[in-house]
Structures are given as C-alpha cells and as structure tokens.
Amino acid sequence: MRTAAWAAWPASAVWSSLLSALAVRIGIDTGPVEAGVIGTSKFSYDLWGDTVNTASRMETHGVAGCIQVTARTYERLRDGYRFQRRGPIPVRGMGEMVTYFLVGRNQ
Fold first, then answer.
1. What number of other Cβ atoms are within 10 A of residue 47's Cβ?
2. Least buried of 24, 53, 89, 104, by fewest C-beta within 10 Å?
3. Using the 8-state DSSP alphabet, how is residue 95 labeled?
C-alpha cells in the first residue's frame, strides 16, 4: 500500500522532498585510473587507482552540499570555474592536502 501511495505522488513533489532531505558530498580528483570489467556471470565496469582513492577521500572529508576538489583538479579547471580555497586539511592516509570547493562556472 505504501508503494502505491508513493507512486501516486507527482514527480516534482518526490524530488523536492528527497532533495530537501539529502545532504550530498562530492569529491573530485584528476589523474590516471585503471578501468576494467569485473565478473564472469554478472558484469560490472569499475575504476580503481590512486586517483579514485583520492576522490573518495575528498568526498569523505568534504562538507555536505559542497563539491570538494584536489589541487590537481583546481589547476586544471580554474580558468573555467570559480573555487573557494578550503586550505590544508588532514586527509586520512594521505596527510595534509590543500583542497578547494567548486563554487560555480565563470561567466
């Protein structure tokens, strides 16, 4: 019964409700990755490597509602996007790292 009631809601009300309840953190790093298909009966495409691990740490040590990026990503994107310097933060397993919050696109 709950599923049927939920399905009857207008899509905009569902998304509005979900977005107000979610606090998403996003982490981005730039660099090389390994990629491949894993599995023999149920296939899954996956990425791994230091870049993936660093992006994961950016998300883990990030702030809800923000996109936190590494200095490498900042250097690559700074001409097209606006950033706020967060400064050096302790990152588990990596020591202190200078990070930035992605604020928006340059006009």
1. 11
2. 104
3. E
Domain ranges of the chain: 25-105
Q: What is the pLDDT of residues 46-56, one digit of tens each?
A: 999 999 999 99
Q: Is the whole model's pTM more than 0.70, yes or no? A: yes
Q: For residues 62 and 66, what is the distance between their CA atoms, to the nearest angstrom?
A: 7
For domain 25-105, the CATH class is: alpha beta
- Residue 36's DSSP bridge partners are 46
Mapped to the 3 state alphabet, what secondary structure does 21-89 carry? Answer: HCCCCEEECCCCCEEEEECCCCCEEEEECHHHHHHHHHHHCCCCCCEEEEHHHHHHHCCCEEEEEEEEE
